[in-house]
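Known limitations

Structure tokens in this collection are predictions and should be treated as such. Users comparing against experimental data should check residue numbering before alignment. To illustrate the layout, the record for G-protein coupled receptors family 1 profile domain-containing protein is reproduced below. The input appears on top and the generated tokens appear beneath it.
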Amino acid sequence: MDASYSDMYNYEDNTSDCEQYPGPEFSNGSTVLTVLYYLLFCLGLLGNVTVLWVLLRYIKLKNMTDVCLLNLALSDLMLAVSLPLWAHEPQNLASCRLMTGVYQLGFYSGNLFVTLMSMDRYLAIVHAVAAMRARSLRYGIIASIAIWVVAGIMATPQLIFASLEIEADDPRCEPLYPDDMLQFWKMQRNFSENTVGLFVCLPIMIFCYVKILVVLSRSRNSQKGKAVKLIFIIVCVFVVCWVPYNVIVFLKTLQLFDMMNDCDASKTLNSSMCFAEIIALAHCCVNPVIYAFVGEKFRKSLGKVTARCFCWSYQSRVAFRDTTEKETSNTPVKSDY
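Generated tokens:
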């Protein structure tokens, strides 16, 4: 049976009186889930590697926006790279902890860097003059280091408690918490995810973009319409991808307080979690499109790179063809007589 993120939320002690329901039919290692994981992996890998390559090779890091974009791509790439690991059975404790740690670090850092990007845009538009020094390359690096440290701290408990449980020759990567603090660590995990994704990042994003919209509504910039559409897309994509997942995690927390222990509710939550996970993980594929490819500077750099590659490829083919023709014309033809 393949691993699934939803395995972390099976509160069997709360639903022992009813038949356990693992979720949708494809949630337990079927071909459909494996294909989805690999599809998200390929899209996330392609998009984020392209962003990193163009940023480091052609744009270079000049300000906080560039640093934020670089780190967001690294975070999304980390999350994408963990997907093939979850699509197969963990072979040992090391692989179990590796995929748990990579996923957790990518989850927390990704949400935090999206929020930092929103704050950077807010400062650039709402406080354009006053925030020029705060948006420097130096402060961007400091903020990025702080986010990685916070994300690492928040991911550590799940990494430590990750355990390979084998039942009926079926390995499962699940957290194994101490019996005397079982309830505490379950609540800590859920509360950490909800705090980052639902109670901190989302309100900050909404505040920043509402302020940006207020400023843009007063301006006479011809590009105002495009900016408003982009803001709408950013907020909507974040809400669609992460809010369902965080709401389900919150409802799972209520189960810990014996508030939703009915069998039908448990079945519905377990079934919904699998769908919510796939939607949330798709965010790592969408981020490069929203934050990089839509940006004018990045699109111009990518266009130059693409044109240069096609030009080089065309020139190489022409040179190869000319060389071949010369060699052919200079080669003596043997007579059959």
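For this record: The first helix runs from residue 31 to 59. The chain has one domain: 5-295. Please report discrepancies through the issue tracker.
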